[in-house]
């Protein structure tokens, strides 16, 4: 008993209990078409369904097979179907049941589901008829009923949820209800009987009826469900919350079934087109229309799981992933495993650059399998492992005929033979200390292997490399570096064209590429050039060009690489080879060349100008500039441009010697480089290459460049001839002279010039000059000897405040005395210093041949707020007045025979003259008036007959301001001292005449002697003690500027002054 009717057996989902069928499971069949299988099982009863008539399926579809459509179920083509397999578990329905499906039909007719017995009698059919749903079934009494919807229809090209229900009314009568999406329709009572299913020998077809040939369904079918009850539709579908559609399967958690046609594949919310040949659809835009997740997979069960069968030339790995056989790679274009290049064991393309692992005998280098690793790499298994990519360093600091680079020992032959300095061959560049080699632009050349006699090692660059070179060009033309093949094609070259750098590189595809630097090289200056090739992971090459530490420009070569070779090449420095020989010679210097089989930072090769210690355009990495001297010059430093001219005999040099020796030791004839320890052969008469010392009995004569017997005025020490010390004509060593030049004295092994002689190469006598400034600021030069020629205006300069005045004139007074009248450009002076400079010392000589010792003299102009004309007028007036007064005093003294009036007058004048010496404020005119009184002397200074006034230094400055020109006491008080001497001499004479036998004479002199023998001395002392006192003070104070104890005149004057001071006190 079930649904108020009696059935022959309990249907699926029910359990018999007595005579009642009790429900155990409402869902009795659930076929979800989400796999890629020929046989599909429903998830409830494990009923098996086969696609088409055989077991073939994707990727070998038959006409009866539906197409697997990712996320959209199966696509039935109108010729395809599925049918349950024999021996599948039984599936029976009761009188009431529900059948549902998600369909996206292309045509509006066709069977969706049918069930028939072994005689092909349909028990159930669920189909489309002109867009309507039609359901038919066979009842228990053997009759059949069917019903087609009239009010609801399906929508073509869109997803439709459809369901058909068998319902038994209480009567009981048979009814059928339909659902399309959320719309429904129910039939009236169709019969008084009910549906009675069969439990064996049945077949369920999907997409077809019993004959499997007519009215086949065309469109997508996502799933089919059977319920053993009148199932509520709400338990099957979701509505209102679906993302992008109104209804969706409840299993998809609000996701909609993608509404993409077969030639498209869903991607997110979009439908992407398949390629044109993909008639059965695709899951990606690939050529093979592969539905498996693994593109190399041939057969798979679904869209996400592992592969079952792999494609041709592939195998299944342990991880159940398909992979191409060794020697094959997955061709993304043709989507097949394609044969690799013969150099590859595994690869990603058919070229040797696509290798992942190299075949035996080949080694991996930057993605390419090559037979030999580049320089700087070692073979490690099947790969080239980087070791030291600094592969080439050719430094031109040698003097050998074959230069070996310091990294790989690659030989570079200079010229045409191993002969080099000092015996250059015609093709040799010249060695230039601190500047490398100089190529003359005519025939200078160097060779790297391959060259007769030098076949290896050969310099070769890899795909990524850095090449740098220092050059100093002269004419902007020629080939600096050239590597060529046997046909003289350039593999690698650096050329110059009007100062523009041209680079030639050989690439594997594009053969030769030419690149030009954007900047022009300057002549006669150092330039650093760098070419860097980078072969990237993407298999293309970028060339970067650097000039003087800065990027010049870059070039992208594309999918290509630099192709070098070591076979049958010509490698030349300074020229290029052709069929006739060599041409395109370079003129200039090459300092060094470096090569790396990797990219190097430009800062590790050269620095731009602003990082250099000097102003060169570029410099070495230590910041130092390369010396920039011509080949006819040598560097003297310290600045890079400090150069000096070589001797005319030298093609190149390291000093000014005419012998052109480039070795460190001038006694070395040939050497390997410029170092002190590099000598190979000594010059004649020298031996021992470690030192090259002159043979016994000989010494080095640099002026002759030879080992010879030392000259008479030389001595031998440290294997060289050295000149004897100054003034020495013969010597044993630098500390012991044997004989001296003329006029020199030999004392304790040394030669000395006598005092007052100037020491040059000989002993020269000297004479002196002093400067006096008179109150009217006229300058007087007093020489200690008569001049051979008169002093002229052009032989001196007169300066005040360290600036030369505009006008002066020299007036001859005597052969020793000259007056300088100056236009100082100012009228008033206050502590103004005047300097007289002698421009022509050699032209100012004495008649004895002595030379002038002083180069300049300094004096102080008289302070004056009074015009010079006024000073002269005051002095003239005072001088005239004094002469008149003294004359009158003398007349009165003669007539009165009493000189007291004259003494009184002189004493008064003297006292008045010393008033300016006191620290009292007086006007300039009054000071000049009183000072002028001190210049009156009627008695000559007899001491000047024995003392040269200009031999003494000037006194201290304050004494000079009062007219004292010397510190010598007998110069300053000479007139008074002369009078004292006269008095001393006259006293015995008067006494003698007082004893005269002539009475008159005796009586007269006796009276004079009696009256004046003491008064004369006393009167003289009263008048003169101030002069003695001032002169003594000046003599003592002036010695603070001189070393008095080093000269007898100075010391005698100093002690006389002190004696005079003691007497005065």
Give a written overview of the molecule.
The chain crosses the membrane at residues 967-993, 1014-1036, 1048-1064. With 1065 residues, the chain is mainly beta. It has 7 domains: 25-259, Jelly Rolls, CATH 2.60.120; 292-339; 342-387, Ribbon (Hormone Receptor, Insulin-like Growth Factor Receptor 1, Chain A domain 2); 388-606, Sandwich (Jelly Rolls), CATH 2.60.120.200; 663-710; 764-939, Sandwich (Immunoglobulin-like); 940-1065, no CATH class. Helix content is 13%, strand content 36%. Strands 3, 6, 7, 9, 14, 15, 16 and 18 form an 8-stranded antiparallel beta sheet that branches. The protein starts with 13 loop residues before the first strand and ends with a helix.
What features would you highlight for this structure?
single chain; 1065 residues; mainly beta; Jelly Rolls; Hormone Receptor, Insulin-like Growth Factor Receptor 1, Chain A domain 2; 7 domains; eight-stranded antiparallel beta sheet; 9 helices; elongated
How is this structure best summarized?
By secondary structure, the chain is mainly β. The protein folds into 7 domains: 25-259, Jelly Rolls; 292-339; 342-387, Hormone Receptor, Insulin-like Growth Factor Receptor 1, Chain A domain 2 (Ribbon), CATH 2.10.220.10; 388-606, Jelly Rolls (Sandwich), CATH 2.60.120.200; 663-710; 764-939, Immunoglobulin-like (Sandwich), CATH 2.60.40.1220; 940-1065, no CATH class.
């Amino acid at each position: 008993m079930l649904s108020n009717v009696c059935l022959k057996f309990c249907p699926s989902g029910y359990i018999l209990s007595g005579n009642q069928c009790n429900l155990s499971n409402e869902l009795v069949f659930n076929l979800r078409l989400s796999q890629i299988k020929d046989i599909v099982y429903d998830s409830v009863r494990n009923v098996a369904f086969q696609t088409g008539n055989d077991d073939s399926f994707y990727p070998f579809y038959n006409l009866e097979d539906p197409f697997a459509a990712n996320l959209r179920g199966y696509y039935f083509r109108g010729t395809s179907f599925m049918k349950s397999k024999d021996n599948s578990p039984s599936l029976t329905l009761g009188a009431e049941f529900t059948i549902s499906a998600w369909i996206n039909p292309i045509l509006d007719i066709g069977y969706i589901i049918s069930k028939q017995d072994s005689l092909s009698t349909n028990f159930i059919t669920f189909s489309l008829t002109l867009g309507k749903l039609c359901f038919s079934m066979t009842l228990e009494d053997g009759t059949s009923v069917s019903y087609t919807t009239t009010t609801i229809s399906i929508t073509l090209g869109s997803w439709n949820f459809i369901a058909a229900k068998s319902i038994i009314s209480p009567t009981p009568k048979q009814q059928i209800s339909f659902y399309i999406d959320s719309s429904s329709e129910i039939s009236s009572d169709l019969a008084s009987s009910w549906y009675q299913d069969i439990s064996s020998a049945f077949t369920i077809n999907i997409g077809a009826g019993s004959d499997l040939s007519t009215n086949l369904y065309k469109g997508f079918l996502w799933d089919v469900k059977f319920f053993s009850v009148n199932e509520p539709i709400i338990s099957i579908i979701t509505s209102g919350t679906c993302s992008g559609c109104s209804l969706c399967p409840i299993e998809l958690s609000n996701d909609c079934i993608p509404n993409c046609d077969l030639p498209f594949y869903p991607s997110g919310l979009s439908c992407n087109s398949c390629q044109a040949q993909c008639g059965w659809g695709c899951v990606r835009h690939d050529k093979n229309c592969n539905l498996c997740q693994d593109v190399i997979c041939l057969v798979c069960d679904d869209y996400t799981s592992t592969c079952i069968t792999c494609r041709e030339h592939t195998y299944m790995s342990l991880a159940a992933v398909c992979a191409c056989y060794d020697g094959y790679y997955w061709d993304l274009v043709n989507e097949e495993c394609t044969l690799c290049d013969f150099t590859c064991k595994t690869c990603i393309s058919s070229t040797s650059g696509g290798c992942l692992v190299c075949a035996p005998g080949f080694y991996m280098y930057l993605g390419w399998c090559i037979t030999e690793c580049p320089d700087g790499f070692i073979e490690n298994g099947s790969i080239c492992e980087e070791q030291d990519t600094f592969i080439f360093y050719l430094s031109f600091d040698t003097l050998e005929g074959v230069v070996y680079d310091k990294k790989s020992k690659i030989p570079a032959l200079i010229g045409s033979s191993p002969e080099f300095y000092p015996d250059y061959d015609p093709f040799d560049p010249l060695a230039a200390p601190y500047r490398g080699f100089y190529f003359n632009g005519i025939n200078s050349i160097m060779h790297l292997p391959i060259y007769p006699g030098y076949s290896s090692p050969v310099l070769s660059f890899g795909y990524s490399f850095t090449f740098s070179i220092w050059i100093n060009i002269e004419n902007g033309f020629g080939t600096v570096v050239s590597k060529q093949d046997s046909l003289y094609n350039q593999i690698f070259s650096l050329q110059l064209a009007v100062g523009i750098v041209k680079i030639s590189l050989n690439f594997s595809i594009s053969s030769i590429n030419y690149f030009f630097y954007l900047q022009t090289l300057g002549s006669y200056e150092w330039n650093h050039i760098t070419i860097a090739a980078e072969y990237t992971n993407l298999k293309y090459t970028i060339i970067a060009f650097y000039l003087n530490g800065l990027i010049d420009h870059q070039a992208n070569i594309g999918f290509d690489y630099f192709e070098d070779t070591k076979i049958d090449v010509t490698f030349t420095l300074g020229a290029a080879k052709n069929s006739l020989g060599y041409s395109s010679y370079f003129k200039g210097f090459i300092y060094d060349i470096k090569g790396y089989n990797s990219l190097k930072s430009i800062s590790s090769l050269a620095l731009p100008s602003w990082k250099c210690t000097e102003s060169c355009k570029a410099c070495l990495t230590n910041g130092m500039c390369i010396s920039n001297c011509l080949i006819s010059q040598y560097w003297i430093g310290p600045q890079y441009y400090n150069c000096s001219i070589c001797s005319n005999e030298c093609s190149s040099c390291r000093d000014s010697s005419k012998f052109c020796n480039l070795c460190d030791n001038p006694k070395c004839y040939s050497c390997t480089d410029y170092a002190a320890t590099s000598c190979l052969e000594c010059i004649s008469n020298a031996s021992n290459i470690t030192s090259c010392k002159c043979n016994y009995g000989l010494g080095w004569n640099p002026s002759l460049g030879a080992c010879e017997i030392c000259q008479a005025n030389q001595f031998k020490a440290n294997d060289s001839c050295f000149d004897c010390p100054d003034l020495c004509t013969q010597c044993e060593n630098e500390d012991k002279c044997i004989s001296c030049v003329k006029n020199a004295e030999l004392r304790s092994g040394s030669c000395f010039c006598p005092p007052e002689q100037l020491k040059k190469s000989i002993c020269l006598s000297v004479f002196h000059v002093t400067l006096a400034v008179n109150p009217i600021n006229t300058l007087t030069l007093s020489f200690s000897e008569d001049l051979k020629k008169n002093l002229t205006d052009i032989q001196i300069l007169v300066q005040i405040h360290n600036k030369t005045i505009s006008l002066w004139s020299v007036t001859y007074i005597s052969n020793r005395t000259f007056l300088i009248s100056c236009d100082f450009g100012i009228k008033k002076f206050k502590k103004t210093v005047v300097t007289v400079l002698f421009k022509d010392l050699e032209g100012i000589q004495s008649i004895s041949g002595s030379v002038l010792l002083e180069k300049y003299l300094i004096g102080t102009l008289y302070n004056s707020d009074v015009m010079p004309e006024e000073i002269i007028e005051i002095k003239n007036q005072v001088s005239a007045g004094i002469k008149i007064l003294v004359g009158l005093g003398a007349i009165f003294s003669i007539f009165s025979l009493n000189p007291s009036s004259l003494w009184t007058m002189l004493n008064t004048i003297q006292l008045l003259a010393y008033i300016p010496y006191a620290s009292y404020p007086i006007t300039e005119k009054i000071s000049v008036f009183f000072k002028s009184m001190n210049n009156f002397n009627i008695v000559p200074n007899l001491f000047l007959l024995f003392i040269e006034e200009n031999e003494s230094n000037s006194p201290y400055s304050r004494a000079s301001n009062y007219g004292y020109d010397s510190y010598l006491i007998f110069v300053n008080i000479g007139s008074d001292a002369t009078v004292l001497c006269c008095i001393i001499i006259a006293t015995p004479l008067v006494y003698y005449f007082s004893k005269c036998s002539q009475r008159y004479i005796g009586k007269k002199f006796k009276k004079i002697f009696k009256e004046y023998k003491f008064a004369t001395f006393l009167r003289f002392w009263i008048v003169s003690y101030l002069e003695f006192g001032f002169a003594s003070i000046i003599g003592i104070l002036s010695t603070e500027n001189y070393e008095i104890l080093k000269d007898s005149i100075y010391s005698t004057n100093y002690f006389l002054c002190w004696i005079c001071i003691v007497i005065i006190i």
